[in-house]
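Sanity check. The docking grid for magnesium ion depends on where the pocket ends up, so I'm generating a full predicted complex first rather than guessing from homology. Inputs follow.
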Amino acid sequence: MDEAQLKQIAATTQYVLLDFDGPVCDLFGNLTPDVIAASLLDELEGVLGGPVDEELADIDDPLDLLDGVSEIYPELIGRVDASVRDAEVDAAELAEVTPGAEAFLAACAEGGLRVAIVSNNGAEAVRALLEMHGLAGFVQHVEGRDPDPRLMKPDPTPLLRAMTALDARPESTVMIGDSPSDMLAASAAGVAAIALLSTPPARSGPPWVSRMSELASLFGAPRT
Ligand SMILES: [Mg+2]
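Predicted complex below; grid placement will be based on this.
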């Protein structure tokens, strides 16, 4: 599991960019994305006064829907984005924290690492979950979704903004996330990456772990 590479990254990291849905919580574990997407589509039909474009009709994920709306109904993006943000807060209030996430954040705090959450979800939902679970003090910055969906990861913009907020140098920064878009964004931003994966990757890629508790041990170990 790339132990040497992981240790090397942990030893040189001072700034952590952490994805939200996956590493920190299971955002849509209880309020599921298909339910949210269906309600957004209903709302959109109400606004349009008729059926939505067929390219959108079968979308079952709110962020994919947001992407589609930005292309087909750009004039409605602000309104749909606001509804997605509300739904994400509802989801965050019901979401469970990922096992090991708190231990990881505590290990970072203990080691003096500065942490930013970098999410394609709304910052409102991120803050709601952190506050509900007493985790806000571990996080120095929250970089949520820009109202322009083109700036979502894999675009590196949110990572670069978070690094500016943390005053982070790329050579001592790592992005930790569970999706290919996190890895692509890290590479575009010129920072190291660690993947959180439930099964071993099919192809070689960035070093990976299967549990947040592994990262808690890795980053909690005395660092030289
Ligand atoms: Mg994720």
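Relevant for the grid: Residues 33-94 form one domain.
Also worth noting: The pocket of magnesium ion is lined by residues 19, 21-22, 177-179 (CB under 6 Å).
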